[in-house]
Design goal:
This protein is an alpha/beta fold and 187 residues long. It has one domain: NagB/RpiA/CoA transferase-like (Rossmann fold). It contains four helices and twelve strands. Helix 3 links the parallel strand 1 and strand 2. Helix 2 runs parallel beside helix 3. The longest helix has 15 residues. The protein is globular. It starts with a helix and ends with a strand.
Length: 187
């Protein structure tokens, strides 16, 4: 399947999930994340969910990260596929942009190269750690700005595809966490 075919397939699979199923599967993913060997770092980047796209509810994972007394970083989209990153605090103002993405409006700026772990939204992934996102390229640009040893963790409701055709600019995952399994990739 092409990336566009996979996008269609996995958007349809998400639409089949009820709100209750999304919440339970999201909690299962957050609990699985606690088994990852990533918790000795300081700065954890997380995406805030787009509810209308039936994305994983990252609120559970956010609470787990904060419960481990780690610093959480969230992003705001900019022009030219750029994202600005801000430390999430109790006073960070968050507003939905025109695409329905909850974003910080301002706050304490964090550089991409300072991040230790990045949790990544995706629609599909394969057994080699390649991923299919929404196709805009924001995360590929963002991950290219991070340190080479940043830990990239995908989050998915569904299991791995056998193989996805990767492009030169695609960033491979180190892990992908599903409700029932953690996939680890060598790259």
């Amino acid at each position: 399947m092409t990336k566009n075919e996979l996008r269609i397939k996995y958007k349809a699979k998400r639409k089949e999930l009820s709100e209750h199923e999304i919440d339970q599967l999201s909690l299962d993913i957050a609990n699985q994340c606690l088994n990852l060997d990533i918790w000795n770092h300081r700065l954890y980047h997380i995406f805030l969910s787009i509810t209308r796209h039936q994305e994983i509810n990252t609120e559970h994972l956010l609470h787990a990260i904060q419960g481990k007394d780690k610093d959480v970083v969230i992003s705001k989209t900019q022009k030219d596929l750029e994202m600005a990153h801000y430390l999430l605090t109790d006073s960070t103002p968050i507003k939905h942009n025109k695409y329905g993405i909850p974003e910080p409006q301002d706050g304490i700026s964090i550089k991409a190269e300072d991040l230790d772990v990045v949790f990544i939204p995706l629609l599909a992934f394969d057994q080699q750690g390649n991923r299919v996102g929404y196709g805009k390229g924001y995360y590929d640009v963002f991950l290219d700005q991070c340190r080479k040893n940043v830990i990239k963790v995908g989050l998915s409701f569904f299991s791995a595809e056998k193989e996805i055709e990767a492009q030169a600019h695609d960033q491979q995952l180190n892990y992908c966490v599903t409700p029932s399994k953690i996939y680890e990739f060598e790259n």
